[in-house]
Design a protein that fits this description.
By secondary structure, the protein is α+β, with helices and mostly antiparallel strands. It has a domain of about 100 residues: Orthogonal Bundle (Cyclin A, domain 1). Helix content is about 55%, strand content about 15%. It contains 9 helices and 5 strands; from the N terminus they run E-H-E-H-H-H-H-H-H-E-E-H-H-E. The protein has a 5-stranded mixed beta sheet with strand order 2-1-3-4-5, sandwiched between helices. The longest helix has 22 residues. The mean pLDDT is about 85. InterPro entries: Thioredoxin-like_sf. Pfam families: Thioredoxin_5.
């Protein structure tokens, strides 16, 4: 079995592209794949998203606006996750699509519209969002990111348990489709992993073995 952890900025433009690439690769394989979307945020991930959008890094107003939207989206995601992880992933993709493709600003109205599309009860959502669980879940995801040495978003971590439970790859930034194919589809043998990894690392500097 292959397990994938996608560490993302919940409203990040690069993270949305990365999620789409990974999901399409998963759909194209017959291998058993479990994947987890883990939204996280810190000062560096917020600054990186501001830079990718071509906005001013020196503007306090821009920073506060993006930081507030990011934090709110984190709480929204975890509130929706209490209705099921699949529904939370669908919520996140729709939110990212609205913000990054259709250029809608993050807003309560946007969130409520998506909740309606997913048939999520607004009163229950608001109760979930105000619960202690949201803060605990956000802290747990941050701790996991620290444990796995995740420093930026998007970061994709792939474990191949079919070959070796220590066989893992961490990819920072956008994932190249051919790298995903080699790791997920090809499923090289464990005794060839070091060679395969070294060959890929020479080409992709954002790839690290775990």
């Amino acid at each position: 079995m292959i397990e994938i952890f996608l560490f993302v900025n919940p409203i990040g433009v690069a993270c949305f592209k990365n999620e789409q690439a990974v999901i399409q690769t998963i759909k194209s394989t017959k291998q058993e794949v479990k994947y987890h979307v883990i939204p996280i945020s810190n000062i560096e991930t917020i600054r990186a998203d501001i830079k990718r959008r071509g906005l001013s890094l020196s503007s306090l107003e821009v920073h506060n606006e993006v930081a507030t939207a990011t934090y709110n989206a984190l709480r929204d995601y975890h509130a929706v996750s209490l209705f099921g992880n699949k529904k939370a992933r669908r919520f996140l993709l729709r939110l990212q699509n609205a913000i990054n493709v259709h250029h809608e600003p993050y807003s309560t109205n946007l969130v409520h519209r998506i909740l309606s599309e997913l048939n999520i009860n607004l009163k229950a959502f608001n109760a979930n969002r105000a619960s202690r669980y949201c803060k605990q879940a956000m802290d747990a995801d941050f701790d996991l990111a620290t444990e796995l040495n995740v420093k930026t978003t998007p970061t994709t971590i792939i474990f191949n348990y079919e070959k070796d439970d220590d066989c893992g790859v961490l990819i920072e930034g956008l994932v190249e489709p051919d790298v995903l194919n080699k790791i997920i589809l090809t499923q090289f043998e464990a005794n060839d992993f070091a060679t395969s990894y070294n060959n890929m690392q020479q080409r992709y500097g954002n790839l690290t073995v775990l």
